[in-house]
Structures are given as structure tokens and as C-alpha cells.
Write a structure and sequence with these properties.
This protein is of the alpha/beta class. The chain is 37% helix and 21% strand. The chain is flat and about 70 Å long.
Length: 356
């Protein structure tokens, strides 16, 4: 993937901006390393926490580590009626359309000094957001149907029949992502660019007092597993040194920060995994879809690598670390030569061979 972009959405005063500011505190310092980086006040490029990278760097004796990165987009607060242009309306919805996935932030903290503008409870927050997205999708579908309903040839196409099916289900309050579709219908679905067809996950912003041992809780909203965070604590963590951050997390009884869990959830939601390249010039993590073949993974580095793919030299992370590098892996028979049909495994260490 050339980039991974997550849109942070929520009603006003649910802690969305505090969370985003915490992300900015962890923003990649030299964002120019990432060609997809957009320098914009509402975009933060955050490195994916990965403790394997320094281990690999130590083995291959390089000082340069390039982590995978996630682009978070702070999308203007949604209000009821956004689909009809209330608040920032269409700008908000356009920004969502450009993201790979949606991170819904809902409120479960009780600070009475912060006005719960439009916010009733976490479930209510989520329903308002999803309703606005459904309304906007219905507008897109209705426009297509209205334009083509008098065209006898278009009315019998699979795309038109799908539009009618989508309208029927969206009218019932069902997100496009949850509508049962055939493989052909899934292909035509892409043509409509529906907001509710996007992958999404839910982050619940809790009180500081509720954050203690939060990883042991199994918070849910309806049938959704949610990622619990405390945006205020995340912001505090972003301003600490690494040593103080780890000490603070230990006091809270958690192993990882909420931001790390948000990034992990984004990977799970989009069905992503990492592989690594490791050499004296640099150690780098690359993000790919699960199920990618070796040529597809090579294409993430450069399209020429995919076109001219010959083979992949692959070692597992475990073997690479236990045997201490490429040459020992080769000597012990742990360096595999994989062809075009090889499906990449999580944490593969790879060198690609290709014709230019």
C-alpha cells in the first residue's frame, strides 16, 4: 500500500482533537521520508510502533530505521444534519471519502465542564454519525437512480439493480458494509464510493479513573468491540520521555498506549500485515494486505520490482534473529527461495531479485 489513511470522526467535544494532538506528539519527525506525507494542519503521519526494527538494525549493523507509518486525518466535528450541509457538512463528508478507514470516536467521560454538544451516550454518538453517513450515501444512490431510471438499457444492468438493492437496505438503516452482496455486486459497489462501505472501528474515550487496567476490560457498543482510550492521558504520554512513558503505563496497569492499540486496530480492520527489508543501508517495515503474493509485496517498494520479479529470498523473523543475519540463515538452510505464487507471511524478512 502506498499509504494508510485513517479518518478520525466524532461529534463535537468527544475528545477527538485531544486524541489528534496526542498523535501529533508522536508524529514522524522527518515526514519527508514518506512520499505520501501531506503537510497540512489536520494531517498527522505517525510511525507504527514496532520493537522488531531495532533488533534487526542491530543484526545488520545499520543506523537507519524506517518504520511503517499511518496517516491520521482530523476530520471536522460532525453535527446532526451534516448530510444536509450543517456545520462543515459536505467538506466533512468529502474528507471521509478520501480515507481508507474510519475511526469513530465516541464519548464515555463525565467531565461536566465540557459541553456534550449533540452527544448523549456512546451508542447515541455512534448512531448519529452512522445516520449522517447513510443519508449521504442515499443521496448518491438516489442521484444515480434518478439520472438513469428512464434509460431502458441502464435499468436492466447489474449496476442499476444493485443501486435499487442498496437504496432498499440503506433506507432500513443498514450500512453498505453490512449488506450481503454477491462477488459481482461487490465489484459494482466500488463505483458508488459509499461512505458506509468503508471499514471502520470504534474508539471510546473514557475518564482517567476508568483507564486503570483498561486492557482487561471487554468494552462493547452493541456488537462492536471498541478500543478504549483516555485522550487526556494519551496527550500527557506524548509529552513524556520514553522511560517516563513506560513508567506511567506501568502505573496505569497497561502494556501499551491507547494510540498503539488504535494503530493495531486499524491494521486488523484493514487486514494488513508488515514485512521487512534489512541491510546495511537501512531496516524498513512495509505494509501490505494479508494474502499478498511476493510480486505484489515487491510492488509496494517499486512497481518495477513487481514487473521484473524473479524470486524472493525469505527468512522468518525468528530464524533471522536466532541465527543472527542473512549468511547464517543461508548456511543453516533457513533462507528460502520463493517464486511468484508465494503468499507473504507476517514478519517475513525479504530480499527481492528482479530484472529492471
Amino acid at each position: 500500500m502506498s499509504k494508510l489513511s485513517i479518518g478520525i470522526v466524532g461529534l463535537p467535544n468527544v475528545g477527538k482533537s485531544t486524541l489528534f494532538n496526542a498523535l501529533l506528539g508522536k508524529q514522524v519527525a522527518d515526514a519527508s521520508n514518506y512520499p505520501f506525507c501531506t503537510i497540512d494542519p489536520n494531517v498527522g503521519v505517525v510511525e507504527v510502533p514496532d520493537d522488531k526494527l531495532p533488533v534487526l538494525a542491530n543484526i545488520v549493523k545499520t543506523q537507519k530505521i524506517v518504520p511503517a507509518a499511518v496517516e491520521f486525518v482530523d476530520i471536522a466535528g460532525l453535527v446532526k444534519g451534516a448530510s444536509q450541509g450543517e456545520g462543515l457538512g459536505n467538506k466533512f463528508l468529502t474528507n471521509i471519502r478520501d480515507c481508507d478507514a474510519i475511526c469513530h470516536v465516541v464519548r464515555a467521560f463525565s467531565d461536566q465542564s465540557i459541553i456534550k454538544e449533540g452527544s448523549v451516550d456512546p451508542q447515541g454518538d455512534l448512531e448519529v454519525i452512522q445516520t449522517e453517513l447513510i443519508i449521504k450515501d442515499l443521496e448518491s444512490i438516489d442521484k444515480y437512480i434518478s439520472t438513469n431510471k428512464n434509460n431502458p438499457k441502464e435499468k436492466i444492468t447489474k449496476k442499476f439493480l444493485l443501486a435499487e438493492k442498496l437504496k432498499s437496505e440503506l433506507d432500513k438503516g443498514i450500512l453498505a458494509r453490512h449488506i450481503s452482496l454477491t462477488d459481482d455486486e461487490k465489484l459494482f459497489l466500488r463505483d458508488f464510493f459509499l461512505l458506509t462501505a468503508k471499514p471502520y472501528f470504534v474508539v471510546i474515550n473514557v475518564d482517567e479513573s476508568a483507564y486503570i487496567n483498561i486492557e482487561d476490560s471487554k468494552l462493547k457498543i452493541e456488537d462492536y468491540d471498541v478500543v478504549p482510550i483516555c485522550a487526556k492521558i494519551e496527550f500527557d504520554l506524548s509529552e513524556l520521555s520514553e522511560e517516563d512513558r513506560l513508567s506511567y503505563l506501568k502505573e496505569l496497569g497497561v502494556e501499551s498506549s491507547g494510540l498503539e492499540r488504535v494503530i493495531q486496530k486499524a491494521y486488523e480492520t484493514l487486514d494488513l500485515q508488515s514485512y521487512y527489508t534489512a541491510g546495511p543501508k537501512e531496516v524498513r517495515a512495509w505494509t501490505i494486505k494479508k494474502g499478498y503474493t511476493a510480486p505484489q509485496a515487491a510492488g509496494v517498494i517499486h512497481t518495477d520490482f513487481e514487473r521484473g520479479f524473479i524470486m524472493a529470498e525469505v527468512a522468518s523473523y525468528q530464524d533471522f534473529v536466532e541465527l543472527n543475519g542473512w549468511n547464517p540463515c543461508k548456511e543453516k538452510g533457513k533462507l528460502r527461495h520463493e517464486g511468484r505464487d508465494y503468499v507473504m507471511q507476517p514478519d517475513d524478512i525479504v530480499e527481492f531479485r528482479f530484472n529492471v
